[in-house]
């Protein structure tokens, strides 16, 4: 019940295309859902996050879509660029203790 | 500004030796986390410090692993009698406690290789 399942494991998208990464969770007590971006040799960095009281959050080319009834959330990267090539992690937590439960990661490659 | 600093950035040691990994969190961040990331894998939670509370050690994989945080700031992760399966990147993160859902800020990790 504590797991966050992330898919796909890897993804190749053409430059200018839309990259979509999906995550699913079981614990309905989760109320904070961040996405982190990690470049090789670096630590993960927060990209965008959402609370379950909204169904979508957009920041520039990055959008989180949240489906509370299905217990799923996804990251959409519009107009994908080679510089977006990185590993992306979804995560979830309960406000009370803020322990993040991490997805397994998606390695995204944007082909020029 | 200064981010989370980890040292060393790389460590190569022989099987059976002890290693110490250091994390300097962002000043004022009271929460500190250690994670392990194997090659191409996700983040495995190891231990969590929050202020003066007892640390959450539930992720430590064996009694060879221990961590301490002195003065609520710098933390050291110690691995005794290292094994080859301990080879991984060890990541440290810190965050402030005040404010809703403050993000974890990560260092760039220590890449540990056990020969």
Brief synopsis:
The complex is a heterodimer of chains A (112) and B (115). Chain A is 0% helix and 53% strand.
How does this model look, in words?
The complex is a heterodimer of chains A (112) and B (115). Helix content of chain A is 0%, strand content 53%. Chain A has strands at 4-7, 10-14, 19-25, 33-38, 45-50, 56-59, 62-67, 72-77, 86-92, 101-102, 106-111. Chain A is globular. The mean pLDDT of chain A is 93. Chain B is mainly beta. Chain A binds chain B through residues 32, 34, 41-46, 49, 51, 89, 93, 95, 98-100, 102-105, 107, and chain B through 4, 31, 40-43, 45, 48, 56, 91, 93, 95, 100-101, 103-109.
Task: Outline the fold blueprint.
The complex is a heterodimer of chains A (112) and B (115).
Chain A: E1 4-7, E2 10-14, E3 19-25, E4 33-38, E5 45-50, E6 56-59, E7 62-67, E8 72-77, E9 86-92, E10 101-102, E11 106-111
Parallel strand pairs in A: 2-11
Antiparallel strand pairs in A: 1-3, 3-8, 4-5, 4-9, 6-7, 7-8, 9-10, 9-11
Chain B: E1 5-7, E2 10-13, E3 19-24, E4 31-37, E5 43-50, E6 65-69, E7 75-79, E8 88-95, E9 105-106, E10 110-114
Parallel strand pairs in B: 2-10
Antiparallel strand pairs in B: 1-3, 3-7, 4-5, 4-8, 6-7, 8-9, 8-10
N→C terminal distance of chain A: 39 Å
Instruction: Tell me roughly what share of residues is in helical segments of chain B.
Output: under 10%
Q: What is the N-to-C succession of helices and strands of chain A?
A: EEEEEEEEEEE
Please state the CA-atom Rg of chain A, rounded to the nearest Å.
Answer: 13 Å
Overall mean confidence score, pLDDT of chain B: 92
Mean pLDDT of chain A: 93
Instruction: Name the structural class of chain B.
Output: mainly beta
Determine the most extensive contact between two protein chains. A-B, 21 and 21 residues
């Amino acid at each position: 019940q504590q797991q966050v399942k992330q898919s796909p494991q890897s993804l190749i998208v053409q430059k200018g295309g839309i990259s979509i990464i999906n995550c699913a969770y079981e614990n309905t007590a989760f109320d904070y859902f961040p996405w982190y971006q990690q470049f090789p040799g670096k630590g993960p960095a927060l990209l965008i996050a959402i609370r379950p009281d909204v169904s979508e959050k957009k920041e520039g080319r990055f959008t989180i879509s949240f489906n509370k009834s299905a217990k799923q959330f996804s990251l959409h990267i519009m107009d994908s660029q080679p510089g977006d090539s990185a590993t992306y992690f979804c995560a979830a937590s309960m406000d009370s203790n803020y322990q993040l439960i991490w997805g397994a990661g998606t390695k995204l490659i944007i082909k020029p | 500004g200064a981010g989370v600093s980890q040292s060393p950035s790389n460590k190569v040691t022989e099987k059976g030796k002890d290693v110490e990994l250091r994390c300097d969190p962002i000043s004022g961040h009271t929460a500190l986390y250690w994670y392990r990331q194997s090659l191409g894998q996700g983040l495995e939670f190891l231990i969590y410090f929050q202020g003066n509370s007892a640390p959450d050690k539930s992720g430590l994989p064996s009694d060879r692993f221990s961590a301490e945080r002195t003065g609520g700031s710098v933390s050291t992760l110690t691995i005794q009698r290292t094994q080859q399966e301990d080879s991984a990147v060890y990541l440290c993160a810190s965050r402030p406690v005040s404010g809703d859902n403050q993000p974890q800020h990560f260092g760039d990790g220590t890449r540990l290789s056990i020969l």
